[in-house]
Amino acid sequence: MSKNIITPFDRNQDMPLFESAGHQEAFARLQLMVKNNYLGVLTGEVGSGKSTLIRHLVHGIDHMSYQPVYLSIAGLKPRDFYSEMLHHLGETAPFSLVKAKRLWEEVLEARHKQGDKTLVVIIDEAHELSQAMILELRLVMNHRMDSVSFFPLILVGQPELRRILRLKKYEAVSQRIGLRYHLGGMTRDETAAYIRHRIKAAGLDKPLFSEGAIRMIYSATQGIPRPINHICSQALYDAGCKGHEVIEESHISRVLADMERQRGTAG
Ligand SMILES: Nc1ncnc2c1ncn2[C@@H]1O[C@H](COP(=O)(O)OP(=O)(O)O)[C@@H](O)[C@H]1O
Ligand SMILES: [Mg+2]
Known about the structure:
The strands form 2 sheets. A 5-stranded parallel sheet has the order 2-3-4-1-5, with helices on both faces. A two-stranded parallel ribbon has the order 6-7. Helix 3 (78-88) packs parallel to helix 4 (97-114) and helix 9 (211-221) runs parallel beside helix 11 (249-266). The protein is an alpha/beta fold. It contains 11 helices and 7 strands. It has 2 domains: 21-183, P-loop containing nucleotide triphosphate hydrolases (Rossmann fold, 3-Layer(aba) Sandwich), CATH 3.40.50; 188-261, Helicase, Ruva Protein, domain 3, CATH 1.10.8.60. The mean pLDDT is 92. The protein has helices at residues 21-35, 50-60, 78-88, 97-114, 131-141, 160-165, 171-174, 188-201, 211-221, 225-242, 249-266, and strands at 39-44, 66-71, 118-123, 153-157, 177-183, 208-209, 246-247. It is 51% helix and 13% strand. Adenosine-5'-diphosphate binds at residues 12, 15, 17-18, 23, 44, 46-52, 225-226, 229.
């Protein structure tokens, strides 16, 4: 199979958002988190579309009023957090954590007084946050311990994040969560519509996926976009090489068998 062809399932640049019910609901909640300065949590399986939603949120935000800051750092610690944030705000972060924290508070107060743009802090892969950072969130958002938060902070992560935040030691943090959403897989009909959406977004009207092919894709992926992309892309190579215009069950079977074999050799 030639792998030099780019299919509508490989490119993600400028891909319009497919609005499944789950993606729509998640997006609406992300907007509410921003509007209400919430500590918000978005969880979902790997490849379900969390980072894609965040990209659309950041892209569509009113940049006259908001300043988004996107962090995706494995094992983020309070020191990294403050230095990243200060850096984004044009400050040089002092080496000492205590000083960095104090400077962050001062900058935040000053921005608030001056009516500067509201920060929108997004922490992706938040299931990998260090314990110290999770505990720090309380202070990050509400250093005065009295008033409401100056800005929204959105944690994005795998389902594991839900379990972590339920731990007793994080109770003070979870009590501050204003809104949360768990993004599940798409339905079978949505999976079919998603596949059409990707093909159409690439400016094509072919190939078509047969009902049976879609059924197989859905049952192999439970409606999670990234594995759907992977299977569709492989099936297109397969069909393309043979000059077929309709993707049938036989193409999907071959791809799934290939994936199974690869899993076997990888493990
Ligand atoms: N609603 C959507 N519309 C279009 N493409 C999507 C959508 N959701 C996910 N995708 C595609 O699926 C892939 C995985 O999504 P991603 O946002 O990286 O998942 P996650 O961050 O949850 O692991 C991306 O390549 C993206 O293009
Ligand atoms: Mg992601």
